[in-house]
Design goal:
Length: about 250
């Protein structure tokens, strides 16, 4: 799907970002992998190179305006241009009651998950080549409140608002921007060991089951690809049915 194309993946050192970077390379793309943890980014590069692909690692804090510009610069210099951007980097917050969320924590979560998306979208709109595309990792928490993670949910609601609001500006340059809203994903961010395998056929996670990073990454790749040429400014939920209905309950209890 991406032969002859180049892609930038933020948060590509683990989880969904690593899975997406591996699959983009497998589908023919040259991939720039940006991550706050440079060593993790280099590990993703090594996995791609071992499989015969081409990739570079970039250390970047997406909350930094300068780092956003620098990572797009590095990708352009390495590959001659950028066609796709997967703005996936983000942070969770420790679960706590609403009243215990400090202003310091609130500001940091929004700096990464919302300011980072804003800065990345501005760069992507200016830098991507015509017919390029951008995907932002939001969350099922962009659609529902999250009593134990108010700062996180707020940041993801905002990220979704940015995607919808940016769609026209992207279209004016022949580009598209969409979001994915994952549910429970079995990644290091959620305390699960990194799985670096790439599956040809994916298992069914079951109703409200935990998703693999690749199951989410495949949806991101679809939205980035020309197969999704008619989709702009929308969000695709990837949650194994988690938000489809009320949780099972006992009506007698």
């Amino acid at each position: 799907m991406f032969r002859g194309k180049t892609a930038l993946v933020t948060g590509g050192g683990s989880g969904i970002g690593r899975a997406a970077a591996q699959r983009l390379a497998q589908e023919g793309a040259e991939v720039a992998i940006a991550d706050l943890d440079a060593e993790r980014a280099r590990e993703t590069v090594a996995l791609i190179e071992q499989a015969g692909g081409r990739a570079i690692a970039i250390a970047a804090d997406v909350a930094s305006e300068a780092d956003n510009a620098a990572m797009f610069d590095a990708a352009q210099q390495a590959f001659g241009g950028i066609d796709h951007a997967f703005l996936n980097a983000g942070m969770l917050q420790r679960y706590m009651p609403f009243e215990e969320v400090s202003l310091k924590l609130f500001d940091r979560v929004l700096a990464v998950n919302l300011r980072g998306v804003f800065l990345g979208l501005q760069q992507a709109r200016a830098r991507l080549r015509p017919q390029g595309s951008c995907v932002v990792t939001a969350s099922a928490a962009a659609l529902l409140g999250f009593s134990e993670a108010a700062a996180y949910a707020t940041s993801k609601h905002g990220a979704l608002g940015l995607v919808r609001s940016a769609a026209r500006a992207f279209a004016e340059r022949g580009l598209r921007v969409n979001a994915i809203c994952p549910g429970n994903v079995l990644t290091p961010m959620n305390g699960v060991a990194q799985d670096n395998s790439v599956q040809e056929e994916l298992d069914d996670p079951g109703y409200r089951g935990g998703l693999s990073a690749q199951q989410v990454a495949e949806v991101a790749l679809f939205l980035l690809s020309r197969r999704a040429a008619g989709i702009n400014g929308h969000a695709q939920v990837v949650d194994a049915g988690f938000a489809a209905a009320f949780a099972p309950f006992d009506p007698t209890g």
